[in-house]
Amino acid sequence: MSGEEHPFGFDLYDQLVNSPQTRFHAAQLFHRYFALPEQAAYWSEVCKYDRFERESSGTHGDSEYERSVWDLAVACMALSVKLHRDCLSPLRPVRAAEFLDMARYPMTHKMLELAQRDILYTFQFQLGSCTPQDVLDELWNALPTLRRATAPIGWTAVQRVTWDKLFESLLALDMMQYPITLLTAAALVDSLTFALACQFRKEAEPNVCQSKALAKTSVFDSLLDEIDESSWQIHLHDASRLVKDVVLDVKAVLHISSVRRTESL
Predict the structure, then answer these.
(1) 73-94: b (≥16 Cβ within 10 Å) or e
(2) Which of 82, 120, 217, 264 has CB 3.0 to 4.6 Å from 186, enough for a Cys bridge?
């Protein structure tokens, strides 16, 4: 597959497709930046001024505010890729031009560098943080109960659903108030329960689902068509019982209370 087949080059495409933690960390940086009180106040004023200027002059077209936000979004992606991209052979570093191609508006190298510098200064160069994948890997290595519970469906499928839920959490306004460990634990337990229930339903009704549905879809959509509510609740109850020991171990390892985990769901 050649780089010409992708709008921003194969190396960047490969990184974003195969590393969900790169995408998640970029979005998290973007959230953190605009969640800071001083940044939120500043950009709110910039947005108001930009709207006033456009209305006063009757200008239509690109907004300077939108351009600036796009610069910061691309800068967050670039910084995340730099943190998570392994450049040892046969992999190659992602070129700056590939990031510039991601922007919705024309963007120069200088604009990208200035936006990255702004983010670095704002965070006092402390960009690194625990990612959901780090938490998932630690839990997998530490908990025999988790390895046993995922045996019927496979750890890869469970991780895929967990990442889907984590990306959904980025859309929640209160996402930033929860630590990554808590978000990941809640997403993992919820995903594991759901995936096991789907597997139980597939075994009980083999004609309804394809045998490889779990491996091919991250959200198990094909398993939820025409669900019988009563039978689904039974499968969900059976899955919850199987996951019970996993929940206790996860809470113990991560020092999570029942109240905190419920809040994050």
Answers:
(1) bbbbbbbbbebbbeeeeeeeeb
(2) 264
- Using alpha carbons only, what angle is made at residue 184 by residues 181 and 190, rounded to the nearest 5 degrees? 135
Please answer whether residues 200 and 239 qualify as being in contact, where contact means their C-beta atoms are separated by less than 8 angstroms.
Answer: yes
* Cβ proximity of 38 and 85 under 8 Å: no
- For the stretch 2-55, pLDDT in tens is 444 566 778 888 889 999 999 999 999 998 888 888 877 777 777 776 665 656
**CA nearest to 194, candidates 173, 210, 177, 217:** 217
How far is Cα 136 from Cα 142, in angstroms, rounded to an integer?
10
pLDDT at 162: 95
Residue 97 neighbours by CB distance under 10 Å: 12
Residue positions counted in the chain? 265
What is the Cα–Cα distance from 158 to 181, expressed in whole angstroms? 17
